[in-house]
Structure prediction request, 722 residues.
Amino acid sequence: MISSHLPDFSMTRRRVLTLGALTGGLILSARHAAAVVRLDVTQGNFQPLPIAIADFMSGAPADNDTALGVTQIITADLKRSGLFAPIDPAAFLEKITSVDSVPHFPDWRTINAQALATGRVTRQSDGRLKAEFRLWDVLAGQQLAGQQYFTTPDNWRRIAHIISDAIYERLTGEKGYFDTRVVFVDETGPPERRVKRLAIMDQDGANVRYLTRGEDLVLTPRFSPSTQEITYMAYGQGDPRVYLLNIETGQREIVGNFPGMSFAPRFSPDGQRVVMSLQEGSNSNIFVMDLRSKAMTRLTDTPAIDTAPSYSPDGAQICFESDRGGHPQIYVMAASGGTAQRISFGEGTHSTPVWSPRGDYIAFTRQAEGKFGIGVMKPDGSGERILTEGFHNEGPTFAPNGRVIMFFRDPGGSAGPSLFTIDISGRNELRVPTPSFASDPAWSPLLS
Amino acid sequence: MPIAIATGADVSQATPGQQNAPKVEKPKPLADKVGDLKQVKQLAPKVADKPEITTDAAAEPAAKPKAEAKAEPKPAEKAEKPTPADLKPDQIAEKLKKEEAKKPPKPEKKEAQFKPDQIAEELRKDEAKKPSPKFDANQVAALLDKREPRRQVAAAETLNGAPSLGAANGHAAQLSQSELDALRARLIQCWSPPPGIDPDSKLYVVLHVEFKTDGSLALEPAVVEDAAASLGPALAESAKRALMLCQPFTMLKPEHYDLWKNIDIKFNNELLGG
Prediction:
């Protein structure tokens, strides 16, 4: 109970009158000083962004084909991402004739474009190719981005992908993934005598190159994060070997001769170490090897099968698959080893975990009730979502921006596996074109 | 300590109106169109003639036993009027057996001769045999109030859009919730949020929007508040695009312009579907 000295206050008539007038005055002023109305919009309605990609101009008739090719690659990249809806050029009202002049925005608003990309390709006198573009906000009527690039003429596809990445990043706020490559295992021949060759291609399926000849069985290629190197496992005449291959030079080095290895190693984010699983008798454990010193360190020591390790993007943790609890599930532990925490508790078994380069998800293969699915969960195990299910789906790999996952699907029977991509939201599942059957994809970091 | 107590009478006397205040015009009634003032019908409770209720239950007159069994009040629209229900038990039993449903007799007029047990027995038999009657919405419609709707377009000699007491340019006390809801619904339709945002991240942006009288934007919306994050600019841009794309916002009424001229709109994708 609060007690305070009451003021010597007599409620005289005069005072009451004053009080009444004051209160009335306050109420009046409150009504006139109207507060700004506040509205909360707590959901939206995601739609791919309608974008117009005007035909890139060419500096000279000799560059016409290149300009057309660049336009087509940008259109295909953005459309395939599922986040953009390129408008049919037949609907365009204005013909862009200069990359330097401001477009007539009402013409583009009429066809419902929200963004417009224009550009030009010009062969320079020194033989280099110059490519430039401008990105316009049609609704606000202003330029959003503009850039020019110089490269060798045969690199024109990469320039187109780089421009796609620039447009993607400016409009979504996230880094793109178009200037990347995918290494995979190309499979040909009948199921009982499949010839498996290591192959590499641009993420859109172009520029396929074979890296091995097919005498050895090759498995699980992986990209180095910082250099143009890949590791892969090859079963030759003797024991399986882990190779380190430089894509640019073709130089091949044996990382180690590890009997009983079932998965090729994965690189640490700084590219200095590789983590792998080694079979010891009836179980397998996780080891890390320093690439310079070749020193090996044991990380797990359990009478279980611990395999398929993958680093977190900050290099501080490793997720891996273990059946120490009875069935294959996903565990997380510090990169230096120690106690492992189980994070997968959903239905079925969980295997082949891979940490997103963005750090926000771990993708995995799940097997439940005879179906295989590709899913994601947060690194603490919450928010498990299956993105695709049904056939034999396996081996997820993340695009460098963590928004798209590639995996392979084997329908079984006489047909062979194929590569697919899917958005992290579960939308937009697409088949990746390959010359023949394909499996075990690994996505490179951004090349630039 | 002297305490002066002010009574209610004192207070009302102390704050009277001015004796010689200027006369205020008597407020005209709301008029949306020019015409003769229509008198609003009196609401004298009148029992409307009830049509025969026929239900789908073929076997027994299902409606009747229900009406009798329940001594509950009938739907509010029906004005209760006691009918002289001089019904004897055997007459009721007869009626119960008949196919057609009758006007439900009013419970309060039940006479002492009624034997509740007998009725209850009959009812139990009937209840057991009859299939549950299908709910026929049309029948309910027939029971509804047949009086004309009261609010019509008000007519008077001159147009007057201000129905309230007070100043000639007065407006309703607040922007109606339905206008705001309609604006919100439109923005939900038009806003395509960046798909990369984690719904748990609590990422949001508040834009200050200034409108013209026709509901279009007066100038580019400005960010007044946002949660610092790498996707913040993309979120702000997507919100601005939604506003620019879907203007003019015609659901906002011109007579309330002063109230919606400036709105702070917060965009956050909490209910992200995927």
In short: Residues 63-143 of chain B form one domain. Chain B has a mean pLDDT of 67. The longest strand of chain B covers residues 205-210. The longest helix of chain B spans residues 116-129.
